[in-house]
């Protein structure tokens, strides 16, 4: 902020710079004037650029309309958000609107009307509970470390893992995430949210956590064994196996620690209950806004803990 203010108070050099843009003017400029312009660029331009970027709306790409024009606008947004041109160009090469993604999304909206009993019967079946208990044993050491560090019960982490991808063995999506998110962002219904997700996906590529070939996900761009949205991947992802990359598709330690970190970062209280009406039930909103889904998560975790 201080730098911006300095830039403003030094605004007396601005008319000079504008005059300098007139054709031929630079050639006629005296040594002093050239020096002043150089000084301006060195001292004040970064502050002016920062001011411009700060005052621009966070998501400026216009939804709808020509898809390629939209992608070009998104490329500028992504660059302003710190993604390199090389990453953007590689990621956007050949990306086209995917009508199947839109059709799927339209079918999904408003179809979630099951009761708790109906939902648990399909999602928490005996086979999934048994495999959950096996996962608790198989990964006992890792889960104990994650629980000690983040304060989130291991049974809840395993329940989430089971619900989202059958402990990594199930479907974690087959769609190129950049194409999905570009399509959803271009659509005007939730453009702002998906523009943010698209930029987050580009940041994942830039960080080297995933490559364009491995950035494969589900119909809303969810990634990995606990189906993280790209923005959550960026915010809460943890490299828990220490290989230098956050890999939520293949690394079980990264998956479980990142899931625990998401809950901890959203106010999870160690050692406290997490059923309906508790503070921890609220903390689980960042995971899933649906109360029904959170009740199923709680129920499943209790089943795993009680051995019933
Ligand atoms: Ca890792």
Task: Provide the descriptors you would attach to this structure in a database record.
Lysozyme; 2 strands; mainly alpha; 1% strand; 308 residues; disordered N terminus; two-stranded antiparallel sheet; binds calcium ion; 3 domains
Question: How would you portray this structure in words?
Answer:
A two-stranded antiparallel ribbon has the order 1-2. Helix content is 61%, strand content 1%. The chain is mainly alpha-helical and 308 residues long. It has three domains: 2-55, no CATH class; 67-107 and 173-217, no CATH class; 125-172 and 223-306, Lysozyme (Orthogonal Bundle). Helix 10 crosses helix 12 (154-165) and helix 12 (154-165) packs across helix 18. It is built from 18 helices and two strands. The protein has helices spanning 2-9, 14-20, 25-28, 31-43, 45-55, 67-80, 85-92, 99-108, 116-123, 126-138, 140-150, 154-165, 177-186, 191-207, 230-236, 252-265, 279-283, 291-306; strands at residues 175-176, 216-217. Residues 239, 241, 243, 245-247, 251, 254 line the site of calcium ion.
């Amino acid at each position: 902020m201080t730098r911006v203010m300095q830039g403003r108070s030094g605004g007396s050099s601005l008319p000079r710079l504008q005059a300098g843009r007139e054709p031929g003017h630079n050639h006629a400029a005296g040594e002093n004037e050239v020096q002043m312009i150089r000084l301006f660029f060195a001292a004040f331009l970064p502050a002016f650029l920062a001011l411009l970027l700060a005052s621009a709306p966070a998501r400026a790409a216009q939804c709808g309309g020509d898809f390629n024009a939209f992608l070009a606008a998104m490329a500028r947004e992504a660059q302003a958000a710190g993604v390199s041109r090389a990453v953007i160009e590689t990621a956007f090469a050949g990306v086209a609107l995917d009508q199947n993604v839109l059709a799927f999304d339209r079918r999904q909206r408003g179809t979630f009307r099951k009761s708790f009993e109906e939902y648990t019967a399909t999602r928490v079946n005996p086979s999934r509970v048994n495999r959950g208990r096996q996962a608790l044993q198989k990964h006992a050491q890792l889960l104990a470390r994650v629980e000690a560090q983040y304060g989130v019960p291991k049974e809840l982490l395993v329940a989430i893992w089971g619900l989202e991808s059958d402990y990594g063995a199930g479907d974690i999506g087959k769609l190129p995430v950049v194409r999905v998110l570009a399509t959803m962002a271009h659509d005007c219904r939730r453009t702002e949210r998906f523009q943010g997700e698209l930029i987050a996906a580009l940041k994942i590529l830039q960080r080297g956590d995933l490559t364009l070939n491995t950035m494969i996900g589900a119909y809303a761009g969810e990634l990995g064994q606990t189906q993280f949205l790209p923005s959550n991947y960026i915010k809460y992802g943890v490299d828990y196996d220490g290989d230098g990359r956050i890999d939520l598709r293949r690394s079980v330690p990264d998956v479980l620690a990142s899931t625990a970190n998401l809950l901890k970062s959203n106010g999870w209280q160690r050692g406290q209950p997490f059923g309906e009406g508790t503070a921890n039930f609220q903390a689980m909103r960042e995971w899933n806004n649906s109360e029904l889904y959170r009740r199923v998560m709680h129920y499943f975790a209790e089943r795993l803990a009680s051995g019933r």
